[in-house]
């Protein structure tokens, strides 16, 4: 049962529910009056098409008893289970407790399996066919929404099937990323860079670092801005980035948001902010270890493993 911001809502729900059930019971009792055998059946008093009338026959007994049983069942249910505002029910049942019991029951069954893989290093787990199948199902459950079914990511979400990593692609770092999540922030740098023309120059210089299409004259003007605006603090003087900060390598042709002039200028002006949620508490060490092995295997391809589907 959700927490109410006011006890008045709980009282309101309880009163409306109980009064409604009481009204249904009263209505059933009123309609339960049978017809005396041999008495004349009255009509409802309405006529259609001049002579068509409807008899006012009582409801069938079986229907009334079924209706009454339904009302009694509702009262018993509301007494035993949550349903009246903040009242928790005589049995003390809650969906959270039931969920926890079901999870504990499943964990008891699968825990030995995850414990077996937890004792192995990640490259070994990544080469195990059964582990890859389990890891793939976990990936499709927890990761596919952002990184895609083929693990190639999308705008703002990294490609996991290449070897370009923001925070590092070694097994230990992948485990840390899944466990604790990541928060990547690039602050807006437009004001520090200068005018709109300066931003365009810097964007061209950034493109020149990866030998992508750019205006050489503008790139030459933008080069001093790369250091003056503080870009080297995260990306380094050579533009190769810093995995400790999650700062991307600007010298390759892998772009998280796109590698066009307009997109890079937008990134410089407005900054970027990305967050990957932490899964450590939800999954536990064993599942994180197995999922990390699957993700590591996507870009390292242990023998016998095909490309991600």
Radius of gyration: 34 Å
Cα separation of the termini: 41 Å
Q: If you average the pLDDT, what whole number results?
A: 90
Name the poorly predicted regions: none
* Form type: elongated
Q: Care to count the β-strands? A: 4
What is the total domain count? 3
User: What share of residues is helical?
Assistant: 40-55%
Report on the architecture of this protein.
It is a single chain. This protein is mainly α and 309 residues long. It has three domains: 7-80, no CATH class; 102-181 and 277-300, Orthogonal Bundle (Cytochrome Bc1 Complex, Chain D, domain 2); 193-272, Orthogonal Bundle (Cytochrome Bc1 Complex, Chain D, domain 2), CATH 1.10.760. It contains 13 helices and four strands. A hairpin with a 3-residue loop joins β1 and β2. α3 packs across α13 and α7 (171-180) runs antiparallel to α13 (280-300). The protein is elongated and about 110 Å long. The model has no long low-confidence stretch (mean pLDDT 90).
SSE layout:
Blueprint: H1 7-31, E1 43-48, E2 52-55, H2 61-80, H3 95-118, H4 122-126, H5 129-142, H6 144-147, H7 171-180, E3 182-186, H8 190-193, H9 196-209, H10 216-228, H11 232-235, H12 261-270, E4 272-276, H13 280-300
Antiparallel strand pairs: 1-2, 3-4
Helix pairs in contact: 1-2, 3-13, 5-13, 7-13, 9-10, 9-12
């Amino acid at each position: 049962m959700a927490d109410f911001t006011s006890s008045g809502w709980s009282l309101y729900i309880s009163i409306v529910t109980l009064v409604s059930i009481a009204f249904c019971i009263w209505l059933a009792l009123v309609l339960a009056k049978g017809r005396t055998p041999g008495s004349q059946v009255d009509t409802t008093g309405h006529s259609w098409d001049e002579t068509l009338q409807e008899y006012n026959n009582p409801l069938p007994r079986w229907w009334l008893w079924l209706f009454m049983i339904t009302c009694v069942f509702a009262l018993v249910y509301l007494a035993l289970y949550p349903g009246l505002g903040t009242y928790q029910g005589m049995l003390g049942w809650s969906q959270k407790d039931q969920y926890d019991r079901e999870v504990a029951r499943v964990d008891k069954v699968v825990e030995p399996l995850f414990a077996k893989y937890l004792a192995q290093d990640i490259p070994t787990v990544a080469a195990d066919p059964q582990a890859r199948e389990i890891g793939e199902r976990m990936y499709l459950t927890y990761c596919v929404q952002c990184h895609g079914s083929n693990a190639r990511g999308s705008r703002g979400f990294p490609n996991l099937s290449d070897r370009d990593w923001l925070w590092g692609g070694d097994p230990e770092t992948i485990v840390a990323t899944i466990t604790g999540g990541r928060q990547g922030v690039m602050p807006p740098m437009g004001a520090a860079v200068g005018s709109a023309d300066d931003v365009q120059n810097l964007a061209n210089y950034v493109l020149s670092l990866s030998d992508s299409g750019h205006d050489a004259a503008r790139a030459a003007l933008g080069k001093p801005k790369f250091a003056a605006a503080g870009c080297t603090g995260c990306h380094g003087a050579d533009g190769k980035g810093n995995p400790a900060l999650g700062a991307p390598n600007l010298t390759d042709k892998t772009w998280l948001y796109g590698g066009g002039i307009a997109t890079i200028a937008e990134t410089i002006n407005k900054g970027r902010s990305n967050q990957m949620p932490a899964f450590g508490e939800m999954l536990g060490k064993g599942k994180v270890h197995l999922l990390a092995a699957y993700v590591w295997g996507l870009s390292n391809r242990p023998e016998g493993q095909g490309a991600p589907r």
